[in-house]
Amino acid sequence: MLVDQTTPFDAMLQGLANENAGRLIQPGSAYVVATFSSFGQGRYMQVLSAGTLEQPIDESLRNSIGMKVLRTFDACMRDQLDYGRLKAATALKTAFAGVSAELAKSDILSALKELSSRVRQSGARDMIVFVLSDMLENSSISSFYANHNVRAIDPSVEIKKVEAAQQFGDFGGARVFVLGAGLVQGDGSARRDRGVYRDPKTMAKLRTFWELYFARSNAQLVEFGAPALLSPVR
Question: Is the sign of the CA dihedral 99, 146, 144, 150 positive or negative?
Fold first, then answer.
């Protein structure tokens, strides 16, 4: 889970983030909660929480294990699951508390490239990247903003910029879900979206760019929540 601390998430979106994070953390899974914002302003990627949950006992083996041992093990597994979800929820709360509207830049491409190596090296069979961000790059590579709103980008032109800057990553075949795409602060809005109109054609171009980016970075963009997810992360 990667949280962009330049994106103003309201209470509803924060609730969706926590709900989906809890769904992702299951026995036998591993998770990482990290934040990023503006590398050029000294706000580097930071891992807030990471953990691995043990695999449950295979059903075919349970009949050969004593009931007392099984009860103790099952209780430990429940406690571990609750603890993992609590740690992730606490990390997300910390991440959202650190959101700042004062950060002028948003180095999304650099953060994703850095994250991709960690995802690929995990060696997991099923890898999910849950990105909480407006997905509006604003760096020396390119800017997806125009007049306090989403710029109507040309996806093919922007992909060439990414290639020239060598910012593609390698996610090892991970599936990607995005929450918060296109969130824009209105004039005078320091913390949340003020209903700034986002043209559907402009948002479609934004999605196309990220589909191309993740495809070139050995990943699949499954859901592009603009801003909310229509389907749960799973």
Answer: positive
27-36 pLDDT per residue, tens: 999 999 999 9
Question: Phi/psi of residue 16, each to 5°?
Answer: -65, -40
Least confident residue range of 49-58, 82-91, 119-128, 194-203: 194-203
Q: Considering the entire predicted model, what is its pTM?
A: 0.89
Cα–Cα distance, 205 to 211 (Å, whole number): 10
Burial class (CB in 10 A: 0-12, 13-18, 19+), 189: middle
| pLDDT digits 0-9 by tens, 109-139 | 999 999 999 999 988 889 999 999 999 999 9
Q: Which of 21, 30, 69, 26 is nearest to 50 (CA)?
A: 30
Distance between CA atoms of residues 183 and 129, nearest Å? 19
- The domains of the chain, with CATH numbers, are 2-224 (3.40.50)
Q: What DSSP line would sit under 138-192, residue for residue?
A: BSSS-B-EETTEE----HHHHHHHHHHTT-----TTEEEEEESTT--PPTT-SSS
Q: Which long-range contacts (CB under 8 A, 24 or more apart) does 51-55 make?
A: 51/84, 51/87, 51/88, 53/25, 53/26, 53/27, 53/28, 53/29, 53/80, 53/81, 53/84, 54/27, 54/28, 54/80, 55/27, 55/28
d(CA 214, CA 229): 18
**Residues facing residue 31 across a β-bridge:** 51
